[in-house]
Amino acid sequence: MAVERTFAMLKPGVLPRRLVGEVIIRIEQKGFHIISMKMITMSRELAETHYKEHRGKPFFESLIEYMISGPVITMVLERENAIPALRKLAGATDPDMADPGTIRGDLGIVTGKNLIHASDSAESADREIQLFFTEEDINVWEDGNGPWL
Length: 149
Ligand SMILES: Nc1ncnc2c1ncn2[C@@H]1O[C@H](COP(=O)(O)OP(=O)(O)OP(=O)(O)O)[C@@H](O)[C@H]1O
Ligand SMILES: [Mg+2]
Fold this sequence. Notes:
Blueprint: E1 3-10, H1 20-29, E2 33-40, H2 44-50, H3 60-67, E3 72-80, H4 82-90, H5 103-107, E4 116-118, H6 122-132
Antiparallel strand pairs: 1-3, 1-4, 2-3
The structure holds adenosine-5'-triphosphate and magnesium ion (MG).
């Protein structure tokens, strides 16, 4: 397994529901290195670019409206197997189908406001990281010799 980077975004519902800490603690406890983090309010253009593969689908407009309705927290995460590991931690798109123990399964209520975005492939991760971060934003750090790994 190779160390890889993935991109995560805490969606606009997370701040009003006071779930920032709850979501981030799950990411930390699963061993991801947070190597960059930024709070932003997306423009429509940025949100549409981010979700461009969904342009034309019935839920696209409501998805974009929601995603620009308030601030999001964007992160670059590094770990072995980071891309599938974060998808697993996020859970299925529909919170009612997501397993208990996942972020969406435990905390999500509706599909359109499912708390977290996670890159779905290496290509998506590269594209999304470049869309939201520059290389200068990245802060790589090492684990010590702690007992946690
Ligand atoms: N049928 C649907 N009805 C309403 N919203 C939907 C539907 N399908 C997807 N969405 C919304 O669009 C987002 C992007 O859909 P996608 O198929 O990429 O799911 P995902 O990869 O699990 O989620 P994300 O890309 O946000 O990590 C979903 O997270 C969800 O908020
Ligand atoms: Mg997706």
